[in-house]
Write a structure and sequence with these properties.
- The structure is a single chain.
- By secondary structure, the protein is mainly β.
- The chain has a domain at about 1-45.
- It is built from no helices and five strands.
- It has strands at about 15-20, 20-30, 40-45, 70, 75.
- Strand 4 and strand 5 (about 75) form a beta hairpin.
- The chain is globular, with a radius of gyration of 15 Å.
């Protein structure tokens, strides 16, 4: 890593197809951060969760940045707070 910042836009970066309708866009991988972090943006279909799993040599953190759902042919965002 050269110490300079960079921007990976939403949906940008290499994409892993994990299951039908489920993908992860890689933002940072361990090789770019001297093994310190991996960051990805995951798209998950409604009603789908992640199975319980354990990371023995790393921590995991998560955040919900945006929720959208499909209503007919229209993609709808969350209601205003």
């Amino acid at each position: 890593m050269n110490g300079k910042g960079f921007v990976v836009p939403p949906g940008g970066g290499p994409v892993l197809s994990m299951a039908p309708g489920r993908s992860a866009a890689l933002k940072l991988v361990s090789g770019e951060t001297a093994g310190s972090i991996m960051l990805f943006e995951e798209t998950v279909p409604s009603g789908v969760g992640t199975n319980f799993h354990l990371h023995r040599d790393s921590d995991e953190d998560g955040a919900i940045d945006e929720m959208r759902h499909r209503h007919g042919l229209e993609i709808v965002g969350p209601p205003p707070f």
